[in-house]
Design brief:
Elements (H helix, E strand, L loop, with lengths): L4 E7 L7 H13 L2 E7 L10 E5 L8 H22 L5 E4 L2 H7 L4 H4 L2 E4 L8 H6 L1 H5 L3 E4 L2 H10 L7 E2 L18 H9 L6 E5 L9 H7 L6 E5 L6 H6 L5 E5 L6 H5 L4 E4 L6 H4 L4 H8 L4 E4 L7 H4 L2 E4 L3 H13 L1 H13 L3 H9 L1
Parallel strand pairs: 1-2, 1-4, 2-3, 4-5, 5-6, 6-7, 8-9, 8-11, 9-10, 11-12, 12-13
Length: 361
């Protein structure tokens, strides 16, 4: 009988804030071929005979001094756990840039094969990226969520091989449209905002750096649609949007994964990224996969990672102007079934399981 492999997943964060790491954990556990040991600051809340967790509770919204202390505590915790329990053949999955910084110089980086998972481009935090340069160069694999980011990081980090692209596709997705709510909050929202109109949905961070004003202005001319805002409002931006038109609704924030019960009612999904840095220009939004899993086409402002022939079949990227938005919403509505079919195929054709298994074998 083949010996079961052990993968250590390290994350100095709360896994609920990084769905791609939850995807890695669930994929490995479901294969029944791996023991997964999770060293983090919050439990995954998963139950599985092959899962063991080592949790050092930490809050991440703290002062700079407390953050430094947390880094040191997590670093010491990881060092002790791996020294006491890991074997040289075990694979270590560094779940974020922040995690890698905390672990720099620890003995396992020389002893064990490891994967470095980078979720962003960090072009506005190049000093942090420089800190992990040698870690990246010695990694078995460097993982990123988008192809252009892979090429850029290969150059910046001076890597021999291009990073592996692991799209931010969730491991679990309910897939069915108009889900029956299972959470009291989603039930309350869907009862309060029940409508027969097509729903244009934006979900995620709500703030001035996610320019939604052109969408709101377009809604004044589209009384037969509703524009729903779902997510945490930073800086009362939703109030500015609500003031534009009566068919704009702010639903508040819903904890993952229950927010997908709201998503399932949308007809069109919005994505907006101001072109103020390379990370936005080559965005890799989780919601692209959350939308496409339901067959929901997207409408976004122009981002290079959301353009090209494949993306054009599942949504539209445009200059963020009211006239363009009106034309694009009409086009998507008129070809609704075609976009829905393409979005579902796009989701189904992405095999994250194979990508993950290659990296841990």
């Amino acid at each position: 009988m083949q010996k079961i492999k052990t993968v250590w997943i390290l994350l100095r964060s709360h896994v609920v804030t990084l769905p791609p790491i939850m995807t890695v954990i669930e994929c490995l556990l479901d294969s029944e071929s791996y023991n997964v040991n999770f060293i983090s600051t919050q439990s995954s809340n998963l139950t599985h005979p092959n899962l063991k967790e080592y949790i050092l509770p930490q809050s991440h919204n703290v002062s700079k001094i407390s953050k430094i202390k947390n880094y040191i505590k997590y670093r010491m915790f990881v060092d002790k756990v791996l020294t006491d329990h890991s074997q040289t053949e075990d694979i270590v999955w560094l779940g974020s840039l922040d995690t890698a910084i905390a672990c720099k110089g620890l003995i396992f980086l020389k002893k064990n094969p490891y994967v470095l998972h980078l979720h962003e481009l960090y072009d506005t935090h190049l000093k942090k990226l420089k800190v992990v340069k040698t870690i990246a160069q010695n990694a078995k694999y460097v993982v990123v969520p988008e192809l252009n980011r892979a090429g850029i990081l290969q150059v910046w980090l001076e890597l021999k091989n291009r990073p592996t692209v692991l799209p931010n596709k969730p491991y679990r997705h309910p897939r069915d449209k108009k889900l029956i709510p299972t959470h009291r909050l989603t039930q309350s929202i869907l009862e309060k905002y029940k409508t027969d109109k097509p729903i244009v949905l934006y979900q995620g961070h709500i703030g001035g750096d996610r320019n939604l004003m052109p969408i709101a202005q377009a809604m004044k001319m589209l009384p037969d649609y509703e524009f729903w805002l779902l997510g945490t409002d930073h800086g009362s931006y939703s109030e500015q949007l609500l003031a534009i038109s009566d068919n704009i609704k702010y639903l508040g924030s819903v904890p993952a994964p229950y927010h997908l019960e709201i998503t399932s009612y949308a007809s069109i999904g919005i994505m907006s990224y101001d072109p103020i840095n390379l990370n936005n220009l080559y965005c890799a939004p989780n919601k692209l996969w959350e939308y496409s899993g339901f067959g929901i086409p997207f409408l976004s402002n122009k981002c290079l990672s959301l353009e090209g022939s494949q993306m054009e079949s599942i949504g539209i990227s445009i200059d963020w102007q009211v006239e363009n938005i009106l034309k694009s919403l009409k086009r998507i509505t008129n070809k609704e079934l075609e976009y829905e079919k393409n979005a579902i195929n796009f989701y189904n054709n992405c095999d994250v399981v194979s990508i993950i298994e290659i990296m841990v074998n």
